[in-house]
């Protein structure tokens, strides 16, 4: 039998978008009035507002916990890491629900309301007298129990809101570009760079303006500003509704993978066909993309082996008229989608060490800044504002990479992206390791200044040492984020099955979340090991009684070893192999209607 391929002439492809997306009225989208930058700019603007809100809370959280709620350094660092971990792991749940049931647009709305509820509760914990942390007297050494409950409830409501908001919003923005349209595909390659530019812009204002309001005006005022910002972002998101392209959820993405596994196990004794073209595939007529067969994980190919009769061959694809159970027979595309997910696991694991470095920037880096001289003339800026150095470094690196380096690298390498995604991530990982090495040297110098002050009888400690000694480590981690963070977003979005793209962004976020938990676990283990036999722990009651320099060297060593593993995995990695739809004129031959595209 012949396959019925949906092929459109060039003029039709330019006018309409045939990538299975719909407009706000459920029709095939008109290219000129939907999607691309006209839609994604709304999404990027909302990301700016949301990141302003998130980093306005997250960056100064350790200061709030230690100064307002009077927690010790170890407890505060663990609480920050636990909250960061939950916040970046929850997207796995939100993304699954978005991809399988609600759709990305609806999930963004639902999670935004939850997010806003958390911000409202956080504001109430500072504004309502009975919910405030203390009675504002000098004798207050511990926050009220009721405040602790309301405060952490608000924080974790924000985590749950982020769980649906973050992966759905980023993937929804990327969905606005048609990958089979040459101009839109090129624009999409810049999307993740400018997404992160907006992210860093929000971060920059969050760690400067918002943090300054928290430290110099009041925490309540800052919370009210953040709540209003989030409310406005929801309104802005709804304003862009008619410009968006929407994807209809297709049910659980896990079910087809389980079907492939069951079918492969059931046919484990069958021999592999001599020609991969004999494996079962069906034509798609709804805009979905087919994946080409790869040789890795060949055991799973048995799920696509036909068991009965002599099927008729059509080019390189084989189909049958008789309907078979999907638990017994899977298509090549479904098999390859399962392989894609399995191939992600080693890369995910090998990026956790990078996440360990990122976790230190919002915890110990900030506490270091709090002990140092933060004066600029007569102005003393908040400790968390030092993180703006990393944000500025990331902003500059992303802009230079997108506008200068990529065009040059395209000419040198012939790669549309300039360099491959995994190569980009590796550069960021190297810079993160360098950041830990610089951090160790700077912290060692800071401790020497503290000890000299103690010996001379000075009470100033390391406050005589300028906070800008931290700038090199923050610049290194900021530029590293510009390569690795953006690369991870692009990698996990592109290399998952098309129907799992919200989950793909969640996988990237889960790297940072799992690393936060891993950081807390590492602190606990090192604390236990170093205080054995009555010795002094590396994590004392404050930084001046701690040895963070040694901890940073441990992180640098972990990253050095991990880089070797990552390099091995990256060299062996096979990128997603997509059968590309090509716009043709009506009288083109069948062989000209399809192309194959490797996405590196």
From TrEMBL:
Keyword presence, Transmembrane: yes
Pfam annotation, one family: PTR2
Keywords: Membrane, Transmembrane, Transmembrane helix
InterPro entries named in the record: MFS_trans_sf, NRT1/PTR, POT_fam
Topological category with respect to the lipid bilayer: Multi-pass membrane protein
Transmembrane segments: 80-98, 104-122, 194-213, 219-239, 340-366, 386-409, 421-442, 467-493, 505-526, 551-570
Location in the cell: Membrane
Keyword Transmembrane helix set for record: yes
Gene Ontology MF terms in the entry: dipeptide transmembrane transporter activity; tripeptide transmembrane transporter activity
GO cellular component: membrane
Family: Belongs to the major facilitator superfamily. Proton-dependent oligopeptide transporter (POT/PTR) (TC 2.A.17) family.
Name of the featured protein: NPF family transporter
Species name: Papaver atlanticum
